[in-house]
Specification:
Organism: Neotoma lepida
CATH architecture: Up-down Bundle
Distance between the termini: 54 Å
Radius of gyration: 19 Å
Protein name: Acyl-CoA dehydrogenase/oxidase C-terminal domain-containing protein
Pfam families: Acyl-CoA_dh_1 (PF00441)
Keywords: Flavoprotein, Oxidoreductase
Largest sheet: 2 strands, antiparallel
InterPro entries: Acyl-CoA_dehydrogenase (IPR050741), AcylCo_DH-like_C (IPR036250), AcylCo_DH/oxidase_C (IPR009075)
Helix content: over 70%
CATH topology: Butyryl-CoA Dehydrogenase, subunit A, domain 3
Order of helices and strands: HEEHHHHHH
CATH superfamily: Butyryl-CoA Dehydrogenase, subunit A, domain 3
Number of helices: 7
CATH class: Mainly Alpha
Length: about 130
């Protein structure tokens, strides 16, 4: 998306100079960094405390807003470059099918949110009893 935005022009301006395209680029970068940081934190937790104790971090990745907010879903990454003039052709059917399948296979977001809440309440209860 960035490469196209830098190379192409529309209405006598580079595409990245158009506010809509700049917003697509910014939102995509923010969402990518969010998932990268959550994944890094989960991997660090697995390395330091083990996989059983790091379950909460893994659930955070699955229930992140990037997956549940329609404007930042992977589908948004798939569709956002399409209106950009002269964008390269996409085989959207296959990418769309893969993303939809992953959403179904992963399970509902509520399950991940419930698991995070349960683990967080358990951690907070331990800390509270340790202080008393």
């Amino acid at each position: 998306m960035c490469e196209r935005a830098v190379k192409r022009e529309a209405f006598k301006k580079k595409l990245y100079e158009h506010e809509v395209v700049a917003h697509w680029i910014a939102k995509s970068r923010i969402a990518i960094e969010e998932i990268r940081l959550l994944t890094l934190k989960a991997a660090h937790s697995i390395d330091t405390v083990g996989s059983a104790a790091a379950r909460k971090e893994a659930h955070k990745i699955h229930s992140s807003d990037i997956w549940s907010t329609p404007t930042t879903t992977p589908m948004c990454f798939l569709l956002s470059p399409i209106p950009v003039p002269y964008a390269p052709p996409h085989c959207q059917e296959q990418m769309y099918a893969i993303i939809r399948t992953l959403r179904l296979a992963d399970g509902p977001d509520e399950v991940h949110l419930s698991a995070i809440a349960k683990m967080e309440l358990r951690d907070q209860a331990r800390q509270l009893t340790a202080r008393m």
